[in-house]
Amino acid sequence: MTSQVSSPAEQADTTVVGEQRTPAGGKDVRRLDRVIIRFAGDSGDGMQLTGDRFTSETASFGNDLSTLPNFPAEIRAPAGTLPGVSSFQLHFADHDILTPGDAPNVLVAMNPAALKANIGDMPRGAEIIVNTDEFTKRAMQKVGYESNPLEDGSLDGYSLHPVPLTTLTVQALKDFDLTRKEAERSKNMFALGLLSWMYHRPTEGTEKFLRSKFAKRPQLAEANITAYRAGWNFGETTEDFAVSYEVAPAAKAFPPGVYRNISGNLALAYGLVTASRQADLPLFLGSYPITPASDILHELSKHKNFGVRTFQAEDEIAGIGAALGAAFGGSLAVTTTSGPGVALKSETIGLAVSLELPLLIVDIQRGGPSTGLPTKTEQADLLQAMYGRNGEAPVPVVAPQTPADCFDAALEAARIALTYRTPVFLLSDGYLANGSEPWRIPEVDELPDLRVRFAQGPNHTLEDGTEVFWPYKRDEATLARPWAIPGTPGLEHRIGGIEKQDGTGNISYDPANHDFMVRTRQAKVDGIDVPDVEVDDPQQARTLVLGWGSTYGPITAAVRRLRRAGESIAQAHLRHLNPFPHNLGEVLRAYDKVVIPEMNLGQLATLVRAKYLVDARSHTQVNGMPFKAEKLAAALKEAIHD
């Protein structure tokens, strides 16, 4: 869903936080600057769909937003249990925001398990909407409630709204030819309608979506729309909800342009398609489904009209093998996976290093080791991307910082791969992949020119004057070797994993040649042109917080909190992790203290300490969730005053 945003200078921010008015309908309307909502229920209750629809309408309204979907790894976890709880958190505001928020203002709990799993995150005074129909004795006992929390006073510190969502939904759909079970499935739409009324969200987009989703079953479409409208009307008429809320569009948060809500995986897929068009090359994806990367395969399979070919292989090794073959054949080649798949692909990544062919390895990181936490986020594959191959096999590493930034990171990874003839790692993670935010759709003339020149004929003259093609004769500026398309007359050459002779590409066991080739491949990566790291330091601070990847949002939010509180702290964030920006050492040595927050046990800190000999301090978290800005701010404040 897209929305047109005019220049901030053309719109006045008239939001008055806390202002209350009474419209003609009689209910008060309170204006807020931001809200954090969490929908929670069984994995079969449609919480992800509910959150996604609320997010889409919020994006079309013009708010800034950030989301955090959180769901079980099991396809259908046991109903009514704590491990089976699925949730979707949305933070939206009338100003620029960076995270899904630390503590929700509103919780919609569809059953006792959802309440039990999420109540610990709710601040006192928060609104809690519960589906009372699900609070049976058996359901409460299943999650360890000895008494009914809706009646025993344990929720007295909250604004509790008991709503029989299931009963009201079934009553609203009594005129439809549906079984009770079929009618009950629409209770998420009733809840969505109620929340849409509470926060004055648009409704047309959701109704259009439901008619499209259930186009082959129009009665089901109308039933869901009826439940949605019933939820809206319930909010309008019930005495339990005396106040609704308005959050004005984020008029000053965005540059002018056309915007849409986008997830990290969708942005990455669009970035790959765009890179192939800008390079004038067909896009080939060789992949094996794995959480949380599968959505990229699903999305790219829809775009055959852009010259995209997707190959769902029988395993991870076959996926990258096909991709490397496509690179040899002249395609922009991509393979997508997560950490366990990278382990399986490592030998072929080493082959790509040896062959010096452009190949994008997209790693959507998740909790490990082994199967680990498939639906939770982590940043623990950095050292695997850097060193997880036999021999000296350097690979450039690029990491996006927000869901929308995944688009630009894909273009940057493609630029490096095509320019320097090398495989490139793109390290996203589950938080970015599934989270979403507004994205300004770029104009075509803003996109980089990624076109390449293939080898067309001989490029070397022998001592006897014979003109020949040398597949490993290098560009003096980039050290990239020529890219020769198979079948081009006169460009026949050997390929394979055994070491090549410099220039000719013939098999070589010569020790001096091997030493030269190893150092040349490393020099090629070291010489990649990457921008200098930029430092945000308006106060001449003595402490620098350095981050990479998806920690950008929480770090920036924490830095803002500290500065508002009068603390002095500088911030820098890395997109390029191999090679590092050339000015990084100078930047680090300019500060007395360097703190590196990571969702691992300190992998970037290890690299920084080893390369630059600075006393970088780690602040780490590996609980499957992104940092919370408040806790991170407290840790950074402690570091400042330590």
Count every beta strand, where a strand is a DSSP E run of 2 or more residues: 26
| Uncertain segments | 4-18
Compute the separation of the termini in Å: 47 Å
Side by side, the strands of the main sheet go 13-12-14-15-17-16-24
Number of helices: 20
What shape does the CA trace take?
globular
Can you give keywords for this protein?
642 residues, single chain, 7-stranded mixed sheet, alpha/beta, 6-stranded mixed sheet, 20 helices, 20% strand
What's a quick, concise take on this entry?
Helix content is 34%, strand content 20%.
Task: Please explain how this structure is put together.
By secondary structure, this protein is α/β, with parallel strands linked by helices. Helices cover 34% and strands 20% of the residues. A seven-stranded mixed sheet has the order 13-12-14-15-17-16-24, sandwiched between helices. It has a six-stranded mixed sheet with strand order 5-6-4-7-8-9, with helices on both faces. It has a five-stranded mixed sheet with strand order 21-23-22-25-26, with helices on both faces. Helix 19 (603-612) links the parallel strand 25 (593-598) and strand 26 (616-620). Helix 1 (47-61) packs parallel to helix 6, helix 6 (187-198) packs across helix 8 (218-237) and helix 11 (316-328) packs parallel to helix 12. The protein is globular, with a radius of gyration of 27 Å. The chain starts with a strand and ends with a helix. The model is unreliable at 4-18 (pLDDT under 50).
